[in-house]
Amino acid sequence: MKRFFRSAFGIAVLGCLALAGWAVWSAGVFDGAVARQLRSASVYAAPGVTLDEPAAERVIGNRRLVVGFLEPGADLSDACDSLGGAVDGTLAVMLSRDGDDFKKYGCSRLPGSDDENFGKAFVAESMIGNGIDAFADRPVDALKVMVVNYDLLVHSGAIPDGGRTVSPSLPRYLIAAAAVGAVLLGSPALYLVTRRATRTSLARRERRDAEADERTELAAAAAVLAQQIIDLDKRYARQTGTSKFARGYRSLVSDYANLLPDLGRGTPELRARVEKLLTRARTLAAQVP
User: Fold this and answer.
1) Which residues neighbour 21 within 8 Å (Cβ) at sequence distance 6 or greater?
2) Whether CATH 3.10.310 fits 41-156
3) Contact at 8 Å (CB) between 76 and 46?
4) Residue 70 pairs with which residues in a beta bridge?
5) What is the DSSP string of 60-94?
6) 98 backbone dihedrals φ, ψ, rounded to 5°
7) Residues with Cβ < 8 Å from 158, sequence gap 6 or more?
8) What is the pLDDT tens value at each position of the chain, 289 positions in all?
């Protein structure tokens, strides 16, 4: 046995076993239910919580935001602590129903949240849940409000811009299996898998490069529109609910909320919709001094 592990083959086998153990551990085999779901998704719903998860995922898109809807009475702080490294690089928010409102607990996993960006993380955790209590019985609409808050925080610099990068567990298991197979069965299978993965990665990169300009332009226009709506909100507070301005403002906010789930696609049609909403916002701004 000692001769085996002193040989080059034995050392290679030990290395592969160590790699496999690392893959199993880093893939989240010891994660709790919340961390396991949010490692590769944006939304978690506890058993008994009614939520249209596909619709909720579309609302959040690829933002660095993850939200857990926990059962009433759940310890939200413990839920945040249990996330570990599963949601690194995101702003995590734990919610649970508390009568007609939500209990909220934010835990930032954004870069530098424990040192140089502590203040920004505190602001983000405090503001991300503003305004969602009115939608306690409509969690998808509550998410839409959170997304508006998130975009405003990005625009203000409290949250870094950019999408979330998810590292799913399956590729790590495949890497470990490929490493063992390379030693025990040879390198051809590893070569074929790597070649296929490279082609897929190149194809994705080409698509991302082709869509980058459209997404950038759309994000900029959407940020301007969100800021315009925030500015109009101050004027709306001074209007009567039946005024022409108030009706136009409510219609604008409703159309903007309906647009949010589609913003991640970055198509020319969406850019045209944002421009139309921006024109409406500027028209409203001109109505009231």
Assistant:
1) none
2) yes
3) no
4) 96
5) HTTSSEEEEEEPTT--HHHHHHTTTTTTTTSEEEE
6) -135, 80
7) 120, 123, 124, 127
8) 566 556 666 676 677 677 666 665 655 555 678 888 888 889 999 999 999 999 999 999 999 999 999 999 999 999 998 888 788 889 999 999 988 899 999 998 888 777 778 888 899 999 999 999 999 899 999 999 999 999 999 999 888 888 887 655 555 555 656 666 666 665 455 556 667 777 888 888 877 776 676 777 777 777 887 888 888 877 777 766 567 888 888 888 888 888 777 776 667 777 788 888 888 888 887 876 5
Q: Using only C-alpha atoms, what is the Rg of the chain?
A: 24
- Structural domain boundaries of the chain? 41-156, 205-287
- Cα within 13 Å of Cα(94), Cβ side: 21
Q: What's the whole-model pTM score?
A: 0.52
Contacts 24+ apart (CB under 8 A), 112-120: 120/157, 120/158, 120/159
Q: Using CA atoms, how far apart are residues 219 and 231, in angstroms rounded to an integer?
A: 18
- Could you tell me the CA-to-CA distances from 121 to 68, 82, 88, 129 in Å, in that order? 18, 19, 13, 14
For 251, the token pair is 């219609």
Residue 55 tokens, joined: 């619709």
39 CB-contact burial (10 Å; exposed 0-12 / middle 13-18 / buried 19+): buried
Which residues on adjacent β-strands are paired with residue 103? 96
Q: Could you tell me if 113 and 88 are in contact, meaning their C-beta atoms sit under 8 angstroms apart? A: no
Q: Burial level of 272, CB count in 10 A (0-12/13-18/19+)?
A: exposed
Q: Which two tokens stand for residue 82?
A: 């249990």
157: left (phi over 0), alpha (psi -120 to 50) or beta: left
Q: Quick one: 147 exposed, middle or buried, by C-beta within 10 A (0-12, 13-18, 19+)?
A: buried
